[in-house]
Every structure is written in structure tokens, then in C-alpha cells.
Amino acid sequence: MIIREDQRFHEKVYILKLKNGMEVHMLPKEDPYYSTYVELSFPFGSNHLAYKKDGLIHRYPPGSAHFMEHKIFAMPDGDAFMKFSNLGVDANAMTSYQQTSYVFNATSNVLDALKLLLNMLDTPYFTKENIMSEEKIIAEELKMYLDDIETELYQDLMTSMYKNHPFKWDIGGTLESIKNIDKEVLTDIFHQFYHPSNRLLVIAGKIDIKKMKVFFKAYDQFEKHKIPKIYQVNEPKSVVCKEIVKQKQVSISKLALGFKLKSRYRNGIEDIKNELTYSILFNLLLGTSSNLYHDLLEKQLINQNFYISSTFEGHQAHFVIFSDTKDPQFLKDYLITQLSLAKDNLLSLDAFNRYIKVYIGQFIFALNSVEHQAYLYSKYYHRHAHLYEVIDIVQSITYNDILLTYNDFIKAPNSSVIYKKD
Amino acid sequence: MKFIQSDYKTIQLTLYMIDFDDVKKRAYRFLLAKMLSTHTQQYKTKQALSQHLQSLYGANFNGRSMLIGNLNIIQTSFIMVNPMIVNDLSLIDQMIDIFKDMIIGRDFFSTSIFEEEKRMLIEQWDAIEDQKGLYASIHFNQLLFGEHPYGYPQSGYKEDILAVTLDDLYTYFLEVLMSNRIYFIINGYFDGYEQKIKLAFKDIENNQEKRLYLKTLEQQQAKEKTEYLTMNQALIKIGYYLPILRNDPLYEAALLFDLMIGGYVDSIMFKIIREELNLCYDVRSSYDPIKGTFVIGSGVDQKRKEEAISKIFEIMDHNGNYELQLDGLKHAKQYLIHQIKSSYDEQIALTLHAFYEDLFEQTILLDQRIEKIEKVTLDQVKSVYLKLQLQATYVLTGDKNDH
């Protein structure tokens, strides 16, 4: 067992590397602590729609990773979700662009729940009937998101930005695409990507390390498997469409403005540094303490429904701005102009230094919750970094990095979607 | 003032201003919570305060008003990193200064911030149809509670917000300081600072008696309403009065009843409505032991909404096919105990427990809570069925032709 310690945050990590390739990382909390939080994740998410094997490209319909996340709970002797509940354990699962995670939180029956989780992932049970039934449930989930105007706006923006990249699909796919997900698709995903060697198990909270070590002995057997390489589609640098305007039955007009970013790095620490640098830059430009944000409020161009967000994955990234506004066209033009002039009036060294402190603070906040800690631990581990290194990466970012990144950002092509009030 | 010494990675200071609820004052209290947490006497703009909070490692400062029974509570919370982790104990002094600056001797409320907060709230009301879930909740509450204050929005209606002037709000703020119960809870690392914190707020703490009073709702004639917006699903909400309040001997039985009917994935609703009939992605029941209500909500396939409503009523019929079972009770007990135990790990939940203990003037230890849950019998849970009074059936559906 490997033990890593971080003195700054008084945190220890115990790492087991099993012969089947699965890694178990344990982040214990000191007593008194009641909960054990478990997250088992695969670096296989909604953006992984094709892989290459033996010279052939194999493709999955959009929404396949999410469908799999639902259906893997089916077991020959019943639904695993119910079994977790019967153990008094709170289970859940989620799919992101980059990974699928299965989680539970327990205050008793931890080892039974762990056994159930691993058993569930080892015994897929896909039938024509249970797949058809799941399709109806997922269709209602997708319709629920479609009834959220901001999700609809975001999805329209993604299709106007991306020609080929899976970002153009919702994580759950579409009402049409999920009809093409069948037993063969799910079985193939299971065989290619759900192998133990592709699993990371993070356990945080109340942990008996000795008992865990004994427990995982049963899984410590050699199994050979090669995870296939994800096939990356070619995505043009330009956007599909510069502007889409739709007349809509909305009470106030809405704007989504997206920038398609150049992704300079491919993996590891540099990739995370690149993402964090962009994230700090966007907050400097339009965060709640920025001059531009307060200028927009003062001019009554925005209200509380104003958000910025950025999404990064190894090969592609984007930055988006959403707002309810009475004058979407003017807001769009004003934002583009002001962002292009930002170097002189928005990117001060003082503000940069403040944001470094904010990011350190956010990191410490995240360690206060085992759920958040385990989530971040998995996310960064799949990107080849240790959670506690992230704070060093933040501190390594310089003001000059921000200025260089800004120079890249202002060259990024943009696209917008406007929902104009009828 | 309540001190909870803990080793969490953050320190949390919360201020409560407690008064008897009056619907005419809801807009005032809603806006006051915003004014107190967006700027202070020293940091006179939102931007200045935001920049100062960033320099304190991104401290989080927010304000809101909330209703608990007959009480309206303004809560402002400050959360920042544990000063020991960043080796800067002066952060505690700075936290105290912000709170003092927020209320003590304050004679400055920014006109532009006041106008901005009002504008944003009014725009939110104007755009309510764009947020289907919120629209459905507000209209369902009106149907469920009728003229009762529980049916009145937390922020007041648009007209109430428009009527508030800055002068009136400032006068009201001074009244609040004099007449509200003012109470603090601090949770986290503050070793050696207790006296300093006590001294800083001793003049502002106010022990006015504002007792929580819970009362069951009076049964009305059941009402039904269907509304149409352009949407893909049908949102169904079915509301009952349930005269079992938090101080009732059947309180734990009602919590378990809620779980067994629709509170988690092992519930009857989840198994039948979602898993067997595939009518929805999610179906939930929620029991409110303060108001005394039991509500079932789901977003369903709009072509099958009648089937969903009919099935929900079939499940809710205690003489019907879906009898509560002993096994189900065992699982629900395990799950409820797990939820309660795990909440003791969350720093924010410890503050909430302490606040509720103060409000209900009652301290129940974890072991006592577990014992009470363990003792609940299946007959007690079944008896909850008999107390339900159907009050409202609300549907918000997407039928484009009718809209």
C-alpha cells in the first residue's frame, strides 16, 4: 500500500493498486465521523462516441454512456438501486462529458454496499425489454431538461459552435439517438470500457483501512485487458454558424454567446494549468467583482440570470456567457467590444492576486465535504494529477500567463444564439 | 450566541433576525436581506464588498429571508477558510469587522443597489413563465393554501416590491434592530476568540421573545387546476394537508410514511410510476412537518398524465392494492437513520441543528432520535394514511394547441 500525506491540509491518502488494474484510493477522516462516501469512476463519458481497434473505427449513438449509466443497475436478480436502499445506503450515478461515476454514501453496511457495487459492475443484465423500458424513462429525463429554457439555449449554442465534436449533443443524447441504443451497444461498452483496469475507486470519510485491505484481497487477481483508444473526430477551428436568432414565447429575451477556444495542451499538469488559467481570466473579465460585470448591471443590460461558464476537455474547449436581457443584440455587440478592449482596463495585477487567493479558498472549501473531495480527486486523477498538486498548479500561474492566454482568447471565433421575445 | 467549536476546513458565522411573520412585510424582509449582504457601511458598493471578500480567500457572504411556521427569519451567513490552514488568524478579526459594519451604527443603504435589487426581483416576476418548475410551484401553493399566508410568496408579489421605498426600508431596518430577536451561531475554529466575538456583538444581540407556534391547517374543499404552457412534459403536483406536526407523537411515523410512499428509490411511487409504468424520470413525495402538508410531484409524459394521476391516487388509497409492508418499513428506518447520522458530518447541518434546537426549545441527541425511529410500528405508519386530507391537484402541461 502506498501512503501519501499532505501536511498543508492535514490529509492522508492510502493507495491500493490491484492486479486486475483497478486502483483504490482511500481518504480517511478522523473520528468522530459517521459517513463513508464511495465514488467509482470510469474515464468514459458522453464525448466518447467512437474508438479505434484493429484498424477499425467503432461508433456509438449519442447518449450511450448515459444510457449505460442507467442500465448497469439492472441485475439478473433485481435492481441494484433498490438493493442499495435496502442496505440503508444512498446510491447515485452521473455521466459527464469525460467520465461516468457510481457513488454511494453509507453510515453502515459499507463493505456489503461495496461488494454490491462491484458485483453490479461485473454482472451486466441487458434485455430487449429492460432496454425499451429504460428508453422511456430517459426520454422523460431529456424532456425534463428540454423544458428548462437555459438548457435549450445552451444546446442550440453547442450545435451552432460545433460541426462534428460530441459537444454538439446533450450528455443524454436526443430523443431520436437513444432509440438506436440497443443490447449490442451496451454490451460493447461494457466489454471495452468497463473493465476493472479502467476503474478508479475513491473512498472518503469513515474508513477502517485494515478491513479494506482484507476486503480488496478477493479482487486482487490478474486480468489482462487493453482499453481501446478513443477516436477523436476532426473539428474545424471555426464555428458552424455565427448567429442564430429565434422568435420565442419567452417573457424576456435571452442571449448565449460562446467562444471556441484553442486547446494547446493534451494531457496532465499542463492541461490543468491551461484550464485554470482560462478560468481565472474569465473571472477577471466577467466575474462578480469585475468592472465589466458591474458596468452591465448599471446599464441594466443584465439581471440575476447572468452566468459565465467554461468547459475543457483534452481536445476541445469553450467559454460561454448567458443572460436574460431586454436588448440581446446590443448586449452581444457590447460584450464582444468590451472583451476585445479588456487588456487595458480589466486585467489588473491586483485583481489577479485576489483571484489566486479565491482559488486557494475554493480548494479548501471543497475539502470540507467528502463528496466534493472524492469528486475532485477522481476528476484530477483521471487527468493524471494528484488532487493536492492542484493547489501548486494554481500558485504556479503568473500574471504573464493570464496576459498570454488573453491574447489567445481574443482570437477565438464566437457564435451566438438569441431567443427574442415574441 | 451559540458557539460550536469544530475542526472543519471553514469557519461559519450566521446571524438570525427573527420576527413574527406578516405578509405585508415580506417584501421588506426579502429586500433587507439583500441590502445587508450586498454592501456595508465601509464597502459601499457591491463591487467593493465583492473584492474585499475575495481578498479573504473568497469568503462567501449571503443573505436571505425564510419562513418557519409563524416566524419570518432574515439570515445572513459568512463562510471563510479555517484561518489555521492559511496561517492567518487576523481573518477572524476581519470577519467580525464585516458583521459589525453590516449592522452596528449603520446609516448607509445605497440607492443604486436598492433600485438594482428591486429591478432584478421585478424582472424575475415578469419572467416567471420561463421557469416552468418555479411557475408550477407558485401556482400550486396558491391552490393548496388559498388565502392562508403559506400561499403568499416569500418575496411578496410584484406590487408589494414596487411599493417599497428606500426610506421606508431603512426605517424598517431600525425597527428590526429594536424589535426582532437577534441571534448568532458560530461554527468552526475560533480558539481564544470567544470573548472577543461575544464582546463585539453584545449590544446587537436581542432576546425579544419570538416563539415558534405550529398550528395545523384547516381542511378546505379540494381544488383542481390545469394550466398550459409550451412545454414537453406535464408537471403534476398533488397536495394533502397532514395534521402531524414536528411536535406530534406520530412525527417519526410520518417521516417513515413519506419515505415509503415516495421519499426514495425503494418507495412505492418510484417503483410503480417510474420503474413499472415508465411514466417519468422522477417522482417524489415530500412531507413538511412545519406546515403539516404532504405533496407528491412528478414530471410525466404529457400524453399519459391522466394515467399517472389515476395511479398516484390508487397508491394513495389505503384500502387499495399497494399496502405498506413490514419489509418496506425496515428499509425506510435504515435509510432515515443513515440520513440523520450522515447529516452530523456536514458543518452546515450542525449549524442548522443548533438553530432548530434553539427555535424548538428542545435538544434531542442523535441516539434519542434513532431510538424514536426504531420504535415506530407498521400500524403507526399506516395510521398516517387516515389523516391525509386531499386539498389540491395541479397540472402544468404542454399542449401547444391550447396555449
Which class of the largest domain in chain B in CATH terms?
Answer: Alpha Beta
Number of strands of chain B: 10
Whole-number count of domains of chain B: 2
Can you name the CATH architecture of the largest domain in chain B? 2-Layer Sandwich
Largest sheet of chain A: 7 strands, mixed
Arithmetic mean of pLDDT of chain A: 94
CATH topology of the largest domain in chain A: Cytochrome Bc1 Complex, Chain A, domain 1
3D structure, described in words:
The complex is a heterodimer of chains A (422) and B (403). With 422 residues, chain A is of the alpha+beta class. Chain A has two domains: 229 residues, Metalloenzyme, LuxS/M16 peptidase-like (Cytochrome Bc1 Complex, Chain A, domain 1, 2-Layer Sandwich); 179 residues, Cytochrome Bc1 Complex, Chain A, domain 1 (2-Layer Sandwich). Chain A has 15 helices and 17 strands. In chain A, the strands form four sheets. Chain A has a seven-stranded mixed beta sheet with strand order 1-2-3-11-4-10-9, sandwiched between helices. A five-stranded mixed beta sheet of chain A has the order 13-17-14-16-15, with helices on both faces. The N and C termini of chain A lie far apart (64 Å). In chain B, a hairpin with a 4-residue loop joins β8 and β9. Chain B is globular and about 65 Å long. In chain B, the strands form two sheets. In chain B, strands 1-5-2-4-3 form a five-stranded mixed beta sheet, with helices on both faces. Chain B has a five-stranded mixed beta sheet with strand order 6-10-7-9-8, sandwiched between helices. At the A-B interface, α2, α4, α9 and α12 of A face α2, β4, α4, α10 and β8 of B.
